[in-house]
Amino acid sequence: MVCPRCVMAVEEVLREMGLAFEKVELGLVRFSDPPDSRQTEAFERRLDALGFAVAKSRETIWVETCKVTLIQLLEEGADGPDGTISQILADKTGISYSRLSQLFSSLQGITIEQYFIELKIEKAKEYLSYASHNISETAWKLGYSSMQHFSAQFKKHTGMTPSQFRKLSQKPRKFLNQVGDR
Fold this sequence. Notes:
Layout lengths: L3 H14 L3 E5 L2 E4 L5 H13 L8 H19 L8 H9 L3 H12 L3 H17 L6 H7 L5 H12 L3 H6 L15
Antiparallel strand pairs: 1-2
Helix pairs in contact: 1-2, 3-4, 3-5, 3-6, 6-8
């Protein structure tokens, strides 16, 4: 789960199933009363039907934590925490960035850097879909050093310039939790 709507959807499933929980946040459910194996299986099926996967291995949890953290950083924009992304990810996961980078690439098929660029491009599409965001503001909000760099990266990933994308009547977009799916 990577967005507030995802959290609400999971909370709704938990309530419908009568499962007691303390907290649901991005990528995590904390049960107040652990479900039995039958309930866990049913809960996982319901999550799967919503397009969510349950991370079970330590490695998968680290990668999912990385993805959720990158989405949160993207949502926070310029107001986000201080520090390099690699240090923030290492702190959040509790493993070295080098190890996390290797795990991420082997499980996702792309590097953390490529994944973050794809996230930024999808977020740019969201901003560009609204008339209230101009191209230079979008570039700034996403942390690009220049509008030219943003435009070049956007075109490399979408095949069109930000201006061309804005003119489309149907703007192709992905949910942020679908970015990086191969």
